[in-house]
Amino acid sequence: MPIKQTVPFVVDAEGTGVAQRLVVAGDHEHVFTADTYPSFGGDDAAPSPLSYLLGALTSCNQVTGSLVASSLGVALGKWSFHIQGDLDPSVIAGGAEGNANFDRVAVRVTVETDAADDVFETFHTETERRCPVTQMFKRSGLAYTSEWTKAPLSA
After folding, report:
1. What's the distance, CA 70 to chain centroid?
2. What is the C-alpha to C-alpha distance for residues 153 and 151, in angstroms, rounded to an integer?
3. Distance between CA atoms of 39 and 46, rounded to whole angstroms?
4. Which residues lie closer than 8 Å to 45 by C-beta, 6 or more apart?
5. Where do the DSSP E strands lie in 19-142?
């Protein structure tokens, strides 16, 4: 049996209170910060971890979709996303019993492409199947919906 290859993704972080400075390790170090809304004890000086989580969903779909499109031989142009996650804050902020996860996440994606309708459907389903972040959301037990729309390529 062949040995399964993995790629390590490493993030180191330090912080005080609810604010953090995060560093992505690698050849090209990337630094970003996280904070949260005042109602959760932050200063709203940087995106919240939950905003980064939803942003990761958009970015991962776009990266994965680009790989899928290449394998299908279709061209892509501009991507547009609108994602909404509905969170009941009673667990994280109030200590209530239950699941601290989003209750639901709704994704709307518009992609410029030259794909035929049937190929676009394959592109959409294969992108969601292969996207690690989409799969984490879908398998987490929250209500997950997505709506993918094909737009003509801009000239």
Report:
1. 21
2. 6
3. 14
4. 19, 33, 35
5. 19-24, 30-34, 76-86, 104-113
Burial label, 95 (beta-carbon count in 10 A; 0-12, 13-18, 19+): exposed
Say how many C-beta atoms besides its own lie within 10 A of residue 122's C-beta: 15
pTM to 2 decimal places: 0.92
What pLDDT score was predicted for residue 1? 79
For the CA atoms of the chain, what is the radius of gyration? 18
Spatial strand order in the sheet of 143-151: 76-86, 104-113, 143-151
CA dihedral 66, 67, 72, 74 (to 10 degrees): 20
Q: How far apart are CA 75 and CA 56, in angstroms?
A: 23
Buried b (16+ CB within 10 A) or exposed e, 124-143: bebbbebbebbeebeeeebe
Q: Count the Cβ atoms, other than its own, within 10 Å of residue 83.
A: 18
Distances (CA, A) of 20 to 13, 27, 38, 46, 143: 6, 22, 15, 9, 29
Comparing CA positions, the residue from 50, 132, 40 lying closest to residue 85 is 50
Q: What is the DSSP letter of 92?
A: T
pLDDT digit string (tens) for 38-52? Answer: 989 999 999 999 999
